């Protein structure tokens, strides 16, 4: 027994001797270029412990495996001219810093923290305030962006940058961040197999979350609130969206969720409340919309005729001004077993399924879809009458769009 | 003038119709408010009721009352009273009676159940509709000599504003849909007090839809303080112009 133990100890000792010395903790105090010096002199595996204070440094390139930790949120200021961290090494950890006032130029996208061609980088518990871009991932793999507070005061779409911007990356995990006041809260372009969870994205000038060409990603338990145009998921395959909240994305061109050219995706257990349009779908194929709640939206779901093979099953539609609209008579999607609060059919056999089909598209919705100014007649006596007449004898509304098994009672979701 | 208003009011308050009108309004309001848990939904139903009942009842009842009290009017005109004063006093009497009926029937219950901006807007537009349609009744009264014709005209007027106007507007929108018609539409809407009242209340209630891209312009204009003032001024014009016209015609009318 003793022998085995000493053998083991020897092994441990030899192993640690093989690496160049033990990792050390280097304390950094605010001074001219102190972080630069520390980063240059540190060895791979060291920890830089930044003391409280203001550091006016920029373009700090981290090309070694370092852990940079802030004590009491030291401030690193870009003086509205420069960018701050550029990480080019794998396994870097940055935590507890406040990075602020990143500059804005036309040639590069300046970011508070930029990760370039690196793997396994962790950005944790930082505050990024008034930056053009908050965190910028460029060809990054397996990076963790956790619990950061990212805030800016972007006034319009042209001058702002994105809170978290990821380009050509894979296996990212973005969780627990709070992002506000940027152009897009989270922007994904060519990012695959990533996981976005428990983030709050609000008051951004454009989208709360923006997907482009990003396949097989999951986002869950996020809240998207009061963004200029809601959430947009475009040109992507295999996106899984569940347990998110889309709240109060309100305006002339605003959507809770905008889907464009989406294939084989799932939208489940989400809640769409008080959006101008709950879900807007264009050119989607095989999208499963299940167990969602659409509440108090202007339009619950707007399904363009270019969508096909999508299922809308077991959703609650409550208090929407219009439940569903479409722009053609062709409907290649299936609506089934949903609860519609406007359904006024009966259920003779008491099996909780209405005995007559429900046509969720009202005639007035069809008219306003064709001629938007007709909106001025909304809720006039005439349009109510037209809706009633159409219910008895459908001629204008797309009769293929119907729910043959509408539920009599609200689903518990 | 005050004496005439007083007598007309007293006469009307003795009249059972006003009482029944009040009771029906109150019953509808209370039952609608009791059913739904959703305030904006209940207000929407009340809006529909206001837009449908108030114009019809106001105009029909006023017309019938004016024609029924022709003898009283003739008697009064034998006295040294200006025709204009007499006519306006009669109008004031009936308008006050109907206003009280609306306030008691709809105003008080919704103020108790949901006191917010939308409710107040609904009450204001209901009151304006009452004033406007009794003024139109006055105009009908001075234009027609025959009671039957007068009542027919009243029914047609009410139907025109409630239903026909919107139908015409819709066909107008349909035929000119290729043109930018949003602004002309705003002008056209001012020609119908019922539509004005509807939009005024809707902008406080169902803003989600009105704020879609199509409703953007309407919201931008009608939803602003300027728009609300414009709407109210329009409604005021709708009250005053029929009154002035009626008074003018009545001055020269051979009774």
TrEMBL record, chain A:
Region forming the signal peptide: 1-23
Pfam families: NosD (PF05048)
Record pathway: Protein modification; protein ubiquitination
Domain Carbohydrate-binding/sugar hydrolysis: 42-189, 196-364
Coiled coil: none
SMART domains, per database record: CASH, PbH1
Sorted UniProt keywords: Repeat, Signal, Ubl conjugation pathway
Protein name (database record): Nitrous oxide reductase family maturation protein NosD
Species for this entry: Chitinophaga oryziterrae
Gene this protein is translated from: nosD
Automatic annotation (TrEMBL), chain B:
Lineage: superkingdom: Bacteria
Listed GO CC annotations: plasma membrane
Statement: the UniProt record of this protein carries the keyword Hydrolase: no
Single annotated GO MF: ABC-type transporter activity
Name of the molecule in the record: ABC transporter permease subunit
Regions crossing the membrane: 18-36, 42-67, 88-115, 121-144, 151-176, 196-217, 229-250
Keyword Membrane: yes
Keywords in alphabetical order: Membrane, Transmembrane, Transmembrane helix
């Amino acid at each position: 027994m003793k022998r085995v133990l000493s053998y083991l100890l020897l092994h441990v000792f030899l192993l640690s001797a093989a690496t160049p010395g033990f990792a050390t903790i280097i304390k950094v105090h605010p001074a001219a270029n102190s972080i630069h010096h520390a980063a240059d002199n540190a060895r791979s595996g060291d920890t830089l412990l930044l003391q409280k204070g203001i550091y006016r440094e920029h373009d700090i390139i981290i090309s070694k495996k370092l852990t940079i930790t802030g004590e009491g949120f030291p401030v690193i200021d870009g003086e509205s001219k420069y960018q701050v961290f550029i990480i080019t090494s794998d396994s870097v950890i940055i935590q507890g810093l406040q990075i602020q006032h990143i500059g804005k130029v036309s040639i590069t996208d300046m970011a508070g923290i930029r990760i370039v061609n690196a793997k396994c980088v962790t950005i944790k518990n930082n505050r990024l305030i008034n930056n053009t871009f908050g965190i910028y991932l460029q060809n990054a793999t397996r990076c963790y962006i956790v619990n950061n507070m990212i805030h800016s005061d972007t006034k319009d779409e042209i001058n702002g940058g994105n809170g978290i911007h990821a380009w050509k990356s894979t296996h990212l995990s973005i969780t627990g961040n709070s992002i506000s006041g940027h152009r897009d809260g989270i922007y994904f372009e060519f990012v695959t197999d990533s996981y976005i969870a428990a983030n709050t994205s609000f008051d951004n000038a454009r989208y709360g979350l923006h997907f482009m060409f990003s396949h097989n990603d999951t986002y869950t338990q996020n809240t998207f609130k009061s963004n200029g145009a809601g959430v947009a998921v475009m040109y992507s395959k295999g996106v899984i969206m569940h347990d998110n909240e889309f709240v109060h994305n309100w305006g002339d061109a605003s959507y809770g969720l905008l889907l464009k050219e989406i294939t084989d995706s799932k939208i489940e257990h989400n809640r769409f409340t008080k959006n101008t349009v709950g879900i807007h779908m264009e050119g989607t194929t095989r999208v499963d919309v299940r167990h969602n709640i659409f509440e108090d939206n202007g339009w619950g779901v707007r399904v363009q005729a270019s969508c096909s093979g999508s299922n809308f099953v077991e959703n609650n539609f409550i208090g929407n001004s219009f439940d569903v609209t479409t722009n053609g008579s062709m409907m290649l999607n299936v609506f089934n077993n949903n609860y519609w609060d406007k359904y006024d059919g009966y259920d003779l056999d008491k099996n909780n399924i209405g005995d007559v089909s429900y046509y969720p598209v009202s005639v007035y919705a069809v008219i306003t879809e064709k001629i938007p100014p007709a909106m001025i007649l909304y809720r006039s006596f005439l349009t109510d009458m037209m809706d009633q007449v159409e219910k008895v004898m459908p001629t204008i509304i797309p009769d293929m769009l119907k729910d043959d098994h509408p539920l009599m009672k609200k689903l518990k979701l | 003038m005050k004496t005439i208003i007083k007598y007309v009011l007293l006469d009307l308050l003795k009249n059972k119709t006003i009482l029944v009108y009040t009771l029906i309004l109150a019953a509808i309001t209370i039952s609608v408010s009791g059913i739904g848990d959703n305030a904006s939904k209940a207000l929407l139903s009340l809006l529909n009721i206001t837009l449908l009942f108030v114009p019809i009842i106001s105009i029909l009842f006023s017309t019938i009352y004016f024609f029924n009290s022709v003898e009283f009017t003739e008697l009064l005109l034998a006295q040294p009273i200006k025709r204009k004063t007499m006519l306006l006093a009669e109008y004031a009497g009936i308008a006050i009676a109907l206003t009280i009926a609306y306030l008691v029937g709809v105003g008080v219950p919704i103020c108790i159940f949901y006191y917010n901006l939308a409710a107040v807007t609904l009450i204001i537009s209901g009151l304006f509709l009452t004033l406007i349609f009794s003024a139109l009744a006055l105009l009908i009264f001075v234009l027609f000599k025959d009671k039957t014709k007068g009542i027919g005209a009243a029914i047609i007027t009410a139907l025109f504003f409630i239903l026909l106007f919107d139908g015409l507007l819709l066909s107008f929108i349909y035929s000119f849909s290729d043109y930018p018609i949003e602004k002309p539409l705003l002008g056209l809407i001012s020609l119908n007090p019922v539509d004005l009242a509807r939009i005024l209340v809707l902008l406080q209630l169902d803003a989600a839809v009105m704020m879609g891209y199509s409703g953007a312009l309407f919201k931008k204009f009608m939803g602003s303080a300027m728009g609300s003032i414009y709407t109210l001024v329009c409604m005021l014009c709708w009250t005053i112009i029929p009154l002035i016209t009626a008074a003018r015609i009545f001055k020269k009318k051979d009774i």
